[in-house]
Amino acid sequence: MQLSEESLVTQRSRFPHSLVLIFAMIVLAQLATYLLAPGEFQRVPDPTSGRQMVVPGTYAQVDAARVPWHSFLTLIPKGLEKGADIIFFVFIVGGVIAVVRATGAIDALIGATIRNVGDKPALLIGGTMSLLAVGASTIGMAEEYMPFIPVLVTMCLALKMDAIVAMAIVYIAAGVGYGCAALNPFTVMIAQRIAGVELASNQGLRWGLLAVCLGIGAHHTLAYIKRIQADPSKSLVAGVDYSSGFELPKDQRLTPARAAILALFGGAIALFVWGIKAHGWDLPELAAVFFAIALLAALLGGLSPNRTASEFCAGAAEMTTTALLIGFARTIDQMLNEGRVIDTVIHALAQPLQQGTPDFAAIGMLAVQSVTNFFIPSGSGQAYVTMPIMAPLADVTGVSREVAVLAYQFGDGFTNMIVPTNALLMGMLALGRIPFERWARFVLPLLAKIYLVLVVLLIWAVRAGL
Question: Which candidate, 15, 9, 16, 33, places its Cα nearest to that of 331?
């Protein structure tokens, strides 16, 4: 799914492929090693975590040899090697999700939700958004929701709504789920790992913010529904032909076996959190938990060994683009480190942010991450590009690394709702026959409201010493 949608965007827009943008940044990083003076901060181990912390005010220029001219090529394999742990974790998670989907459990759960509350707009919007947001927040589901766009468009048209509402149900949920991600292995856990922050930290804050932002998104959508039901001409897709092409999936039964698989999934997530907190589990243990989910789900769902293997490989294959983006993005960090200019970049970014309060620095980080997502719409790729800089920058500006991670996930997740370089967004809009500019008219006022909340929360987090 991911690869086909990436191709769709390449064909239908003028925006470069994400890999093109990241490769361009690798070349720019090499040019930076020639143009910037090498320099370093002093670092000391944190007494609690043992991670290396930047000592503010210790930046000094150093002597360093230039990186070879061909480094923009030779460092790519090294970047893939350095990102190997998370790259293979991504493959495993992609395979597991495909196996679970093959049992029909995920489709059945979403289908049952839609059927049971389809005639109640508030329950349909709130319930379905909540369900999808939890999937995005915990296991990074987003591409998996694409098949439900035609389903929801069909249902929304029958209920005198429109395709914008269907898109809102799916993509507001996915955006909020990623932006407030609690356990997403593709975004927040990568960022926490790079920053040296405890994995799965501050769960209450993230889940609470998810509830608030979902409430804002649901209210925004319900207000739009009220307007178009009172006057259909106010629909943002008025005039678009929806007379054909929307059929409901054939099998959405929530059988006992599928219910057991969903319960297994929920139990595995709880085990996942407990293992991190109680035993310091890391990626190898987490990958093992996910792999166990696939085996048990296949058994409960009656999948043959060959079918399970085929689905697993297909799901892992769909993560190839994400995995490559991680490795290529890791190369940028490698290049800046080889040239010993990464601290020079940190020092330069710190100068304007240090002129104000730590509040200002946190908001500045959010702005940087939001703009970066336009160029690197891959959440995992963005983490590897920005967090090696933002984590030590947090040390220099008096902001905690936890706040730096929050700024990253806010900037990555919420802007996914609007950046036209996001392959999944553009693919879903195409499926729903929604012109991008009309979606933008719907979602930009929502993002303005959410960003106000995010700014307030970042200021609170800094002042509370999070």
Answer: 33
CA atoms within 13 A on the CB side of 44: 8
**Six token digits for residue 337:** 């480190």
For the entire predicted model, the pTM comes to: 0.71
Q: Residue type at 249?
A: P
CA distances from 61 to 37, 151, 192, 339, 343 (A): 7, 59, 29, 12, 10
Q: Residue ranges of the alpha helices (H) in 103-199?
A: 105-117, 121-139, 148-158, 163-179, 188-195
Cβ proximity of 178 and 379 under 8 Å: yes
Q: With H, G, I as helix, E, B as strand and everything else as coil, classify residue 334.
A: helix
Q: Which residue has 């590009």 as its token pair? A: 385
Strands (E), 10-153: 39-40, 43-45, 52-54, 60-61
DSSP conformational letter for 276: H
What is the Cα–Cα distance from 119 to 392, expressed in whole angstroms?
A: 51
Element (H, E) at 214: helix 203-230
Q: Residue-wise pLDDT tens for the chain (466 aa)? A: 333 444 444 444 455 666 787 788 889 889 999 999 999 888 777 665 566 667 777 889 998 888 999 999 999 999 888 888 778 877 888 888 889 888 988 778 767 766 777 667 888 899 889 989 998 998 887 876 776 787 788 778 877 899 999 999 999 999 999 999 998 888 898 899 888 888 888 899 999 999 999 999 999 999 999 999 999 999 999 888 887 766 555 667 888 999 999 898 888 877 877 887 677 777 788 788 889 999 999 999 999 999 999 999 998 998 787 788 778 878 887 888 899 988 888 788 778 877 888 999 999 999 988 988 877 777 887 887 788 888 888 888 889 999 999 999 999 999 989 887 676 787 788 778 888 889 999 999 999 999 999 999 999 999 998 8
Q: Enumerate the domain spans of the chain.
A: 2-40+73-463
d(CA 182, CA 267): 16
Angle of CA points 391, 392, 396, to nearest 5°:
125
Distance between CA atoms of 364 and 4, rounded to whole angstroms? 35
Q: Give the Cβ contact number of residue 298 at 10 Å.
A: 22
Structure tokens at 225: 């529904």
Q: How far apart are CA 439 and CA 444, in angstroms?
A: 8
Residue in 152, 197, 219, 180 with CA at minimum distance from that of residue 399: 197
Strand partners, 39: 61
Of 133, 111, 117, nearest to 258 (Cα)? 111
* Strand duo 60-61 + 39-40: pairing: antiparallel
Tell me whether strands 43-45 and 52-54 are parallel, antiparallel or unpaired: antiparallel
